[in-house]
From TrEMBL:
Name of the protein in question: NR LBD domain-containing protein
Recorded family membership: Belongs to the nuclear hormone receptor family.
Top-level taxon of the source organism: Eukaryota
Transmembrane segments: none
Organism field: Caenorhabditis tropicalis
Annotated keywords: Receptor, Transcription, Transcription regulation
Start and end residues of each NR LBD domain: 42-262
SMART domains (alphabetical): HOLI (SM00430)
Length: 266
């Protein structure tokens, strides 16, 4: 980024920064609208692993099936998140192993946030598939005594917080990048930390422009959503383990299994 001439006034410098923020927001919103659109129109029966996708394996697009089951929507959602973040320039600064760790740790979290955002925009209080199906199979409750409260919390809690805070689209797109940029390897930490600070600063400036004196508290409220996402993601992973234990032949695709992999936070 070029530095402005030294004779710029403070007001002109601030206006330039605000213009840069507007341009950034416009770019992120366009990228997210493309992500949302592709999620609803892209379909494939391929079964690649995360490493294969990150190594450049092409996915064959097919005609949209009229009756996509929830397990297929899971694959399409995870693939959609991966493709969305692969379009960010900073991802290409990472080596293959760092990319793999980043997507293993953070794809499911982003999917939870994006799923909650889609539900909110559809005026729902619960996450369902784009075709309106329940995310989890009924047998978890009817045959395996899984807690309905657990399933309901995973499908509803993030949405409830988004609604409670009246999160805007601008805040959502920034939070999605901020949360995804959490590093889980030392070799990637400098690159991702730099990106995360940049987007947190942009979010704070947006809060200053929108909420004035309440900007610091608003920023804290927004960032606190991550703790709910982290908790619900762990619960989602636990449910995934239960499904594999209760239904050994349950058709989980490689990419979904890779995204559901459990790690401790670093």
């Amino acid at each position: 980024m070029k530095l402005p001439p030294s004779n710029y006034t403070a007001v002109e410098l601030q206006n330039q920064k605000d213009d840069e923020l507007i341009n950034l927001m416009n770019k992120l919103e366009i990228m997210d609208k493309n992500r949302s659109r592709k999620y609803l129109i892209f379909y494939s029966t391929d079964n690649p692993s995360l490493e294969e996708i990150l190594s450049g394996t092409a996915i064959v697009s097919r005609a949209m099936s009229p009756d996509i089951p929830p397990v297929e929507w899971s694959f399409l959602a995870i693939y959609n998140i991966i493709e969305h973040f692969r379009s960010f320039d900073f991802i290409e600064q990472l080596n293959l192993n760092d990319k793999k760790l980043l997507f293993q740790f953070n794809t499911l979290k982003s999917n939870m946030l994006c799923g909650a955002w889609r539900a909110q925009t559809e005026h729902r209080d619960k996450m369902v598939t784009p075709s309106g199906q329940q995310i989890f199979p009924d047998v978890l409750v009817t045959q395996f005594n899984t807690s309905p409260e657990l399933l309901n919390r995973v499908c509803c809690q993030i949405i409830g917080r988004l609604i409670e805070l009246k999160v805007t689209r601008e805040e959502f797109v920034l939070l999605n990048v901020i949360f995804f940029s959490n590093a889980h390897s030392e070799s990637a930490r400098n690159i991702l930390s730099k990106q995360q600070k940049f987007y947190v600063s942009a979010l704070f400036r947006y809060c200053q422009l929108t909420y004035q004196k309440s900007a610091p508290s608003r920023l804290n409220e927004l960032l606190s959503i991550y703790h709910i996402i982290q908790k619900n993601t762990s619960e989602m992973q636990y449910i995934g383990i239960m499904i594999q234990g209760f239904i050994p032949n349950f058709p989980i695709k490689k990419l979904v299994a890779d995204a559901y992999i459990t790690h401790s936070e670093t």
